Amino acid sequence: MKMTSFIFLIVFFNSTSWAQINELEIQREDVRQVLRTRACGVCHIPLGNEKALKIYNLDNANWYMTLSDKQLEQFKWRILVKGDEIKEMHGNPKKHQFTEFEIQAVTKYVDTEIKSRDPIKNFLHLIR
Q: Would you tell me the crossing angle of helices 2-13 and 119-127 to the nearest 10 degrees?
């Protein structure tokens, strides 16, 4: 019984390779730097908006850990917002303009982050 559990744990924890973990860490840091340079970097820093800091703090290396999957998904929408909608979010339209490359990077990161949070699903995908 113990050997079976041990083998399961090895397979389970190897379902995400070290290369994938490293790639996710790189994506997290790249996206954090993009967000710092855009409108997000005004509110989501220690001297920023108190309510925004409760959602995530870009000065924290683990900034993504306070975000739910739903909040991460909202990044995809927020980076595409234009004009008056940005002002409603208390953002600066000029500082909010994400490049196509940044939009792709954030979108890829969000998808990867959400997928990485479900190790059971990843494990089941491996054994099919």
A: 100
